[in-house]
């Protein structure tokens, strides 16, 4: 399905969090028509470089690419492409695929478990990270695991490395730079994304429980204010460097995985 003289392949990307957004950015910049789907209340932490905030705000720009929230309406989606933007549909089940008839489906939800994506969803179906078996669930799996030493590697038969549940290493810090919710409740931030923080600073609250920084650095992101969360939900992320603009950049690992997805698309033409 393409609009008029627009012969660019349609790529439907499930998810609009940090990983999916980095992938969407690169696929869009390689001149494909990208359509994103997202859940109603995403729990994205690194929001400055994620398109998921368009769910709430209507638009979201990552670097120089803008996503626009649209209805599951083909004319509205086409118009968004024609204007050079990326349409984002609130559609947890990705049923919009029946409207846009994508050439390629990329599941970048990063659920680490089956999400309903099947190998029959498009002529090329790509699974990002663990939770997919290439040749059965999807055509190609793209590795995301740091411990493999090869994020972005294409897997044509088999699975990606299992999820380690360990955050990305940044400046030698992993779990120390992430804060998870200590209880069920409502999240309230006490600082702004991009702020410089020191170890011990209060970054926010779950209900009345303070959330303190374990290291110093730059406040990379947090879930949206007022979000109702469960105990153990990832809430806040710190980059252990004092650079205010670092929180808006696409991280190297995600860039590498995104390039892997672009390679998978191009090699399967």
Tell me what you see in this structure:
The protein is α/β, with parallel strands linked by helices and about 270 residues long. It folds into 2 domains: about 10-165 and about 250-265, 3-Layer(aba) Sandwich (Rossmann fold), CATH 3.40.50; about 175-245, Beta Barrel (OB fold (Dihydrolipoamide Acetyltransferase, E2P)), CATH 2.40.50. The protein contains 5 helices and 19 strands. It is globular, with a radius of gyration of 18 Å. The chain starts with 9 loop residues before the first strand and ends with a helix.
List keywords for this structure.
269 residues; alpha/beta; Rossmann fold; OB fold (Dihydrolipoamide Acetyltransferase, E2P); 9-stranded mixed β-sheet; 5 helices
General shape = globular
Order of SSEs = EHEHEEHEHEEEEEEEEEEEEEEH
Which residues form runs of ≥5 with pLDDT under 50? none
Number of extended strands: 19
């Amino acid at each position: 399905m393409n609009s008029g003289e627009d012969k660019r392949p349609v790529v439907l990307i499930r998810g609009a969090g940090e990983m999916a957004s980095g992938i969407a950015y690169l696929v869009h910049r390689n001149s494909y028509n990208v359509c994103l789907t997202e859940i109603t209340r995403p729990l994205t932490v690194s929001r400055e470089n994620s398109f998921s905030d368009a769910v709430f705000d209507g638009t979201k720009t990552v670097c120089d690419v803008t996503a626009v929230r649209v209805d599951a309406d083909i004319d509205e989606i086409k118009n968004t492409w024609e204007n050079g933007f990326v349409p984002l549909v609130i559609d947890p089940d990705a049923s919009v695929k029946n409207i846009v008839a994508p050439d390629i489906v990329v599941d970048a939800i990063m659920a680490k478990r089956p999400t309903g994506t099947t190998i029959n969803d498009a002529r090329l179906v790509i699974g990002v990270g663990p939770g997919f078996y290439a040749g059965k669930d999807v055509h190609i799996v793209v590795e995301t695991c740091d411990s493999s030493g090869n994020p972005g590697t294409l897997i044509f038969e088999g699975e990606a490395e299992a999820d380690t549940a360990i955050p990305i290493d940044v400046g030698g810090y992993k779990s120390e730079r992430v804060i998870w919710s200590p209880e069920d409740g409502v999240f309230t931030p006490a600082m702004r994304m991009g702020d410089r923080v020191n170890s011990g600073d209060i970054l926010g609250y779950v209900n009345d429980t303070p959330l303190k920084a374990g290291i110093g650095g730059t406040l990379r992101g947090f879930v949206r204010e007022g979000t109702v969360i469960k105990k153990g939900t990832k809430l806040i992320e710190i980059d252990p460097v004092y650079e205010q603009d670092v929180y808006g950049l696409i991280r190297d690992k995600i860039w590498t995985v995104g390039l892997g997805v672009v390679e998978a698309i191009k090699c399967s033409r």
